[in-house]
């Protein structure tokens, strides 16, 4: 009888030891898996410095009769390892990119007598998110220019590639933004909308507009092209062409 009691006592003690040992192993494993890093911080937004927004007489450094070297500067953004500079020729929509910039200034040679827009994209090696700055415009001075053409209009709506919803009267509302580098110029707009290329002669109701919006009756389920001409009484400029579909 005593032998039997000793045997069961031994089994009970052994079971407790195994249970305690197993529990400790589980706790240790769980603690090791609980570690992990936080979400990477995305880069901040750069603040543009020069060329100044809407500057009419950015001269840069002349390198030939037709080109000047322009210095671009901006303020450093937080959590940023490098910057990409994007420059757009507003007459032709040609884009010049300069990537992997590790300082807050760089120089680019551009054609004279042309309007440009530019912006900076901040990048970080610890994040896949990028952050774009505001977009500024300027005119690179050309020989003998005393009055500049308006900046090409920025088309707002309908967006290119979008499907536009017609209202109860079958109309789509077009909106855009326009500006002129010359102080005191009064701007007028012509809205081109057609099914061909956005360059067909518009009706008189779409010309000499002072507002930056107009509703136009359009056919359903049709692809259209549109652009805007901006005039200051002396010079004119044309926006790029957008295409969209109606519902």
TrEMBL record:
<dbReference type="InterPro" id="IPR013783">
    <property type="entry name" value="Ig-like_fold"/>
</dbReference>
<feature type="region of interest" description="Disordered">
    <location>
        <begin position="156"/>
        <end position="177"/>
    </location>
</feature>
<dbReference type="InterPro" id="IPR036116">
    <property type="entry name" value="FN3_sf"/>
</dbReference>
<protein>
    <recommendedName>
        <fullName>Fibronectin type-III domain-containing protein</fullName>
    </recommendedName>
</protein>
């Amino acid at each position: 009888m005593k032998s039997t009691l000793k045997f069961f006592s031994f089994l009970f003690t052994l079971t407790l030891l195994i249970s305690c040992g197993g529990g400790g192993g589980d706790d240790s494993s769980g603690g090791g898996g609980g570690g992990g890093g936080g979400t990477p911080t995305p880069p901040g937004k750069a603040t543009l410095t020069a060329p100044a927004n809407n500057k009419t007489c950015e001269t840069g450094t002349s390198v030939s009769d037709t080109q000047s070297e322009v210095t671009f500067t901006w303020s450093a953004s937080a959590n940023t390892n490098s910057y990409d500079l994007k420059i757009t020729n507003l007459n032709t929509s040609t884009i010049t990119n300069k990537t992997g910039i590790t300082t807050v200034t760089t120089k680019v040679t551009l054609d004279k007598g042309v309007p440009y827009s530019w912006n900076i994209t901040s990048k970080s090696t610890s994040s896949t998110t990028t952050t774009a700055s505001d977009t500024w415009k300027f005119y690179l001075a050309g020989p003998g220019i005393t009055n500049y053409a308006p900046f090409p209009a920025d088309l707002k709506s309908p967006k290119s590639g979008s499907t536009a919803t017609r209202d109860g009267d079958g109309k789509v509302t077009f909106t855009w933004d326009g500006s002129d580098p010359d102080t005191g110029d009064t701007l007028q707009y012509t809205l081109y909308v057609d099914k061909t290329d956005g360059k067909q002669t518009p009706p008189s109701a779409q010309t000499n507009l002072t507002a930056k919006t107009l509703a136009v009756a359009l056919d359903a389920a049709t692809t259209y092209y549109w652009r805007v001409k901006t005039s200051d009484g002396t010079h004119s400029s044309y926006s790029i062409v957008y295409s969209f579909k109606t519902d």
